[in-house]
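FW: tagging you since you asked about this chain on Friday. Here's the raw sequence from the shared folder, copied in full. Didn't touch anything.
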Amino acid sequence: MLGEKRSQGIFSEVEVPEPDWSFPESEMTEKQENGADLSSALPDSPSETESSEKKQPELVSQKPVSAAPKTQNLFFASEDETEFAEILRDVQEHISGQYSNLLTDGNAGEVKEHIKRYITKYVQDSRAAVKGMTGVQLVDALYTEMAEYSFLTKYIFGTGVEEIDINAWNDIEIQYCGGKTEKLTEHFDSPDHAINVIRRMLHVSGTVLDNASPLVTGTLAKNVRIAVLKTPIVDEEVGIAASIRIVNPQSMEKDDFINGGTATLEMLDFLSECIRYGISVCVAGATSSGKTTVAGWLLTTIPDKKRIFTIENGSRELALVRERDGKVVNSVVHTLTRDSENDRQRIDQIALLDVALRFNPDILVVGEMRGAEANAAQEAARTGVAVLTTIHSNSCEATYRRMVSLCKRAVDMSDETLLGYVTEAYPLIVFCKQLENRQRKIMEIMECEILPDGSRNYRSLHQYEIMENRVEGGQFMIRGSHRKVNQISDSLCKRLLENGMPLETIRKLKGEEAAV
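HL: got it, structure written out here
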């Protein structure tokens, strides 16, 4: 079913109950024998005048006749079939002209229910038909265009879709969770149609897309982010370009990472034990490399008694609250930034980082470091709180240099001083990458060891080594494997022991035999 999820705006995702417009057989038979007008079964129309002027059968069966033999489908056969775009235009004009006041007065759920009923009424009264569509299918398609997001609805709220890339009104690509990318045969009817649908999405987050603001970002749901460009930033014949990112569309388990070749069991256990015992970790990589997926899984391994405080920028990607028997069993505080042109109303990640320490968190999560908040995050990590964060970078070592450049946006310090701070703050860097064959790998886990003289030793612990790249039958083939390169340092072992990790676990991480 298209769009199982609905929002909280008029043109966004809310659950719309399917009205039951069918009668029991006995009642239906009685009304038909007495020649009664079946339109009385529908909800009252906006005015008594309108209903008295136009009395036509309005009863609609929302189920196929074969599924409900005791009801009657009153979509009448039409002798003339019309183009869908023409019917859509007519329905939009009819509803906006006849029902505009009523639609703006109700709440989101009521409005959407009214829209579907009025579409149904119009299709019945006008006996509209489109080749290849039943009456119910036509109503659903019209409703999707008017109250949802056209053909994109099923991809946004479906399963297994990670990203929708709109290159132009007639060029749309879908990226699935497994890395597969597909060009859609479906597309918008015109540049204007594409702009109108995207504007409807942005309406949910109160974002305006127009010539004065042709470059905007917004959110559609807790885990759906939208970045949009329109004319004149893109060509008029293109109309619009957009990236719709659906974060964490499906939950990944440890076995999924192992079976998919993303990481080994030893690597995953090591990372989860480190974050569990207070070691800060930064997950780095390019866009679509799997950073958020890895970080999100790590947080699911945190024991219930540990207090987690999350900070995310604009949209919620993490859902860490656990319930058993209707009761919350862990301790989580989720927070979001709030953007505003008014400085007093704006709440950024720096402000949330400042207040986060007052909540006494065991683990502080900064969804993504993209600016000056990197300095506040490393300051928090150096207070003893375990920080888990993500960053865009192209290698483990480059991650520290990128942190330095972001910190300099907040403070005027030398690169050497800031490099010392960030390497102290984040002993572990995890680098993720999406390979040419679209597979995601943890390419390296690196420890930055601080030596007694204050110098830094970058110690690679685990690596993914590529042995061969080749093209076979048009498919890119990569042969490689993960291998353990080095043991963790003595200084990291000392920190883990001080943070409560059992000695037996430390020996296991170092590859030593447990004491008998």
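FW: DSSP finds 17 helices and 17 strands in the chain.
HL: agreed, and The two ends are 59 Å apart (CA to CA).
FW: great, closing this out.
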